[in-house]
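*** Backbone structure tokens ***
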Amino acid sequence: MVSSEIKMRVAQNCNGYRPVYYMRLVNSITYGSESCSSCVNYVREKCTEGLFDEIRETISVN
């Protein structure tokens, strides 16, 4: 299982990130945060675009 922090860092560096909800409620805890969990391309804990592993490796190197 991938940690929430890793998902957030990957989403922030992903050019394929597309949020499920474009409108966020101001009172929402997730307001302004990006995460793979909130991406349309992240289904069943897997990136359907095949970008997650590549970006995670790049982040870990830097």
In short: The helical segments are 4-12, 52-61. The CA atoms of residues 16 and 49 lie 8 Å apart. The mean pLDDT is 85.
